[in-house]
Amino acid sequence: MRLGADNLTMLYAVSNQPPTARRPATVLQRVQSRPVVLSDTLELSDRCMLAPATTPLPVNDDLKLKGDKPKLTDKQRLDLTSLEANQQRMVVGEIKADATIMAALQDWGSRTEAQKLAVLRRIAALEGQVYHFTPAPMTLDRTMAKGDYGAYDGDARTITLGAWGLADREPRELVDTVIHEQLHALQHQRYTAMKAGKIAPHNPLNAQAREWLYNSNHYHAFEQGPKAYRQQPVEAHAWDGAGAIVDAIFGAK
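and the corresponding structure tokens:
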């Protein structure tokens, strides 16, 4: 789905556009999380993976950052890149180790809509477990036009998938969409936790959350230019993360 003009609704959507916009979404389960420690400066634990935020999404003045655009240091980017590569490998490992998911992906065409949706929710639950966030609930939208894969709605904190996709599309694209849109849910929860003081200021995750929050208030819709849309922090994170995971599961295109 293409983004509408009102970016303050924080509706992250994707459409059947050139290779810069397109992805689906999913999930309901709350998964038990475990700490992931990669270095002294990067730690994921209950301190920074917190719980659904209390602030509703329309981004209002008290959520906006003041001053200049946040900028990550080279060291912070290196640490975050290492963390995210590790998380991507873990998600791939969890999915490949899940016999139910892998059997469904191999036999997708014979599955009912309800069975496919259950598998996509299962994938999203594993993503939430590894990345330490609560996956957004997913619903199907039967009015979504063909070519519109899915969207994360920050007001409702939910993800919608185009019902047409479950009938017409290969599992690769659906899994890609689910992972992509759930990363937008992660971004929302992460910067809400940052604003609440739940991520230590020295933690690179804090700087990343500030960058995402700033971007959410200066969002580039696809219609404003495919390159700016694709390269902005929240979209680069979702596109690159989902792409790496899907390539490792289904093979690089």
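(Above: one complete record from the training split.) The radius of gyration is 17 Å.
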